[in-house]
Protein 1
Amino acid sequence: MKKILKFSLVLVVAFTTMNLHAGTVDFTIGVKKEQGKIVTFALENMISTIDLSIYDAEGKLIHSEKVNSKKNINRTYDLNALPKGTYFLEVESDFKISRYIISVIGETASLSTEPTSEIYKPTFVSKEGLVWVGLFNVDKSPVNIKIFDKDDNEVYDSKEVLDQNVKKVFDINYNNSEEYTFVVTDNDRTFTKTFGKR
């Protein structure tokens, strides 16, 4: 009975952690100033390292930098070198990836205040050979979870999951491989994490 109670408690804690993760606001962007082709914005409410990247409409990386601060910071980008067109500012934290539109029209540039897309990264929790996988799937897009053993053999395929809150628990104790790689695909993004047996 104690074992079942302990397992249930671990399960509740893991799912609570995943739900808190999904509701976490780990950064916000506030546009401060747009003057000509110079855009200034603030990263606020940061709780983790942030990767900033600018892509053109074809997905080619133009600029990237890593911001590591627990404080609010300002960033100013001079976009004079960019020709007329649509670009994307991608802001990636430990928890999510948000994309904002940068429009360059004539001699002006503007940055959208709301993200055009937001993808939450999956949460993985491992304890005593049990692995919990959770994902807040905002737009209920198709999510797929696959597990591969140490020799790259597929041992599990969730097929297409369309739930908003994806939660799965896997027991890797009773399988033959010493380690398993979990592959979560959401919105053409792939996230991987490898776990060994306890």
Protein 2
Amino acid sequence: MDILTLLPFIVLIGAMFLMTRSAKKKQAAAAQMRNDMQPGTGVRTIGGMYATVKEVHDDTVLLEVAPGVHVIYAKNSIGAVLDDAEYNRIVHGDDQELDADGTVVPDDASSLTGESDSAEVAKIDLAKDDTADDADSEDAEVKDAKGVKDVKDAKDESKTDGDADSK
């Protein structure tokens, strides 16, 4: 057998080995993360619920989802163990990074354009003008009347000798 004949099979086996190896690493990291849970840490379940760990057992975890509300979850249902800062930011809305920096990001890009003079910006009047609407409606009525006349003319032109108007 030639080496070129075996090369596709060798590449295929190598790719399968690399894929299973990375999947096993991810599973081992997830299992290690679940085993490192301690009471008092914040977690996110695979369903997206945030809770605090109260007790850790062999296969289950007792979580506090609200003050005084405790539920039992399987360890496999824990999607991520969060550090305290991230858990407080998500659950309680505490943003210590913003308090430390003092930097405020604007909601729009107006401060990024460099033009701070708002007097130069032309104001657009969005109010409805009644006189313009009356003139527009009269023009529309004239156009509609002409359109009806044109349709009748088109029907008359399409008739040939001996055609009747009956349906």
Protein 3
Amino acid sequence: MLKTIEGIYQNGQIQLATQPQDVSEQSQVLVTFLDPGKIDPIKLRQLIDRLETIAGIQQGFDELNAGQTRPIENFVLEMQQKYDISG
């Protein structure tokens, strides 16, 4: 799982802009300090999107390795029914 939350580092403490949801009380984190004068918000958003994509792909591999899959035919039938698509 990968979650990105903005925050501010001040007086030796990191204050998060929002509280993360679905995160245990003790979780491993990575902290990246950004140079305020060199932040390109578009590139930062693109980087976050890429990291979240990688995390999603990893989750898919983890589920596959754990045997949490279903036959493609079941998925196709479910999507046809959900979106009223004729087969």
